[in-house]
């Protein structure tokens, strides 16, 4: 049995602002919606699923909040949290796990919460921007060996593993809701985001600034900055990803991560608010680890 119990949840809020708290009869406590990550489940999908199951709300994930760890018997529970907004709401149905859902303003919510770490998350959220826009920077999925491809490189398609990764990515990226979708003008980058674009019914735009052999670091970063403020997805190449992340952090006056690279099908999510970087997170679709 693993020593760490992985879980995911959110500080779910709506205009007011008001915050969603749930009552769990088994513990007789008031807490933020959260739950365990299922075996093989990605933490983003777990957060969305648990919120919907416990509140009846379909959420759109916003900026990453601090991870909370606390002891459960001889083990440690680690809960990864996001801010989240409702995009669809079903009638709340009480059950054995959650028998009450309330929406409260910040002061009342903090007073009602049973656990200090939940109240700390609420205060942390209020110290930052309420509204943020995600900018997802994605390295294309697997596309076979370049040296084995005899035709023009821009025509090199995803291989079988890459197509599976593209399908997984479509489900994960739904966590952020509909995103403007922009791609390098190469087959492998376009094919990586096609399943997502079809699910959310948005067109895929091609952009030379994100296409290998057609751009330079300054051009790529400036184009990326021009998209700030609009929820967006950029599908590009490994050699361009590092330039985008490092350049974006420098332009916004933030520390550049020690490792800006991505493996194929991995992505960075940059949460922006009024020209500032509110949060930065990195994900892979292949495992439950984020």
Automatic annotation (TrEMBL):
<dbReference type="InterPro" id="IPR015797">
    <property type="entry name" value="NUDIX_hydrolase-like_dom_sf"/>
</dbReference>
<dbReference type="GO" id="GO:0035539">
    <property type="term" value="F:8-oxo-7,8-dihydrodeoxyguanosine triphosphate pyrophosphatase activity"/>
</dbReference>
<dbReference type="GO" id="GO:0006754">
    <property type="term" value="P:ATP biosynthetic process"/>
</dbReference>
<dbReference type="GO" id="GO:0004081">
    <property type="term" value="F:bis(5'-nucleosyl)-tetraphosphatase (asymmetrical) activity"/>
</dbReference>
<dbReference type="InterPro" id="IPR029033">
    <property type="entry name" value="His_PPase_superfam"/>
</dbReference>
<dbReference type="InterPro" id="IPR020476">
    <property type="entry name" value="Nudix_hydrolase"/>
</dbReference>
<dbReference type="InterPro" id="IPR020084">
    <property type="entry name" value="NUDIX_hydrolase_CS"/>
</dbReference>
<dbReference type="Pfam" id="PF00300">
    <property type="entry name" value="His_Phos_1"/>
</dbReference>
<dbReference type="InterPro" id="IPR051325">
    <property type="entry name" value="Nudix_hydrolase_domain"/>
</dbReference>
<keyword id="KW-0378">Hydrolase</keyword>
<dbReference type="GO" id="GO:0006167">
    <property type="term" value="P:AMP biosynthetic process"/>
</dbReference>
<dbReference type="Pfam" id="PF00293">
    <property type="entry name" value="NUDIX"/>
</dbReference>
<dbReference type="InterPro" id="IPR013078">
    <property type="entry name" value="His_Pase_superF_clade-1"/>
</dbReference>
<dbReference type="InterPro" id="IPR000086">
    <property type="entry name" value="NUDIX_hydrolase_dom"/>
</dbReference>
<comment type="similarity">
    <text>Belongs to the Nudix hydrolase family.</text>
</comment>
<feature type="domain" description="Nudix hydrolase">
    <location>
        <begin position="3"/>
        <end position="126"/>
    </location>
</feature>
<protein>
    <submittedName>
        <fullName>8-oxo-dGTP diphosphatase</fullName>
        <ecNumber>3.6.1.55</ecNumber>
    </submittedName>
</protein>
């Amino acid at each position: 049995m693993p020593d760490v119990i992985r879980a995911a949840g959110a500080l779910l809020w709506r205009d007011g602002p008001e915050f969603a708290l749930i009552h769990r009869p088994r513990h007789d406590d008031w807490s933020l919606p959260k739950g365990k990550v299922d075996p093989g489940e990605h933490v983003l999908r777990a957060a969305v699923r648990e919120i919907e199951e416990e509140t009846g709300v379909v959420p759109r994930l916003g900026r990453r909040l601090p991870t909370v760890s606390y002891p459960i018997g001889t083990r440690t529970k680690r809960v990864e949290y996001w801010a989240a907004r409702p995009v669809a709401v079903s009638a709340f149905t009480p059950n054995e796990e959650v028998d009450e859902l309330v929406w409260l303003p910040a002061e009342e919510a903090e007073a009602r919460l049973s656990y200090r770490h939940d109240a700390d998350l609420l205060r942390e959220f209020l110290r930052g921007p309420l509204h943020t826009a995600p900018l997802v920077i994605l390295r294309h999925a697997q596309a076979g060996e370049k040296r084995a491809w005899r035709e023009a490189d821009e025509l090199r398609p995803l291989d079988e593993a890459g197509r599976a990764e593209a399908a997984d990515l479509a489900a994960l990226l739904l966590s952020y809701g509909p995103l403007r979708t922009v791609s390098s003008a190469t087959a492998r980058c376009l094919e990586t985001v096609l399943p997502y674009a079809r699910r959310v019914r948005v067109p895929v735009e091609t952009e030379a600034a994100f296409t290998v052999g057609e751009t330079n670091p300054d051009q790529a970063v400036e184009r990326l900055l021009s998209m700030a403020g609009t929820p967006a997805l950029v599908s590009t190449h490994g050699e361009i990803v590092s330039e985008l992340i490092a350049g974006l952090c420098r332009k916004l006056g933030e520390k550049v991560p020690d490792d800006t690279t991505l493996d194929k099908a991995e992505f960075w999510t940059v949460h922006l608010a009024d020209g500032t970087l509110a949060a930065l997170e990195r994900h892979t679709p292949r495992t439950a680890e984020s």
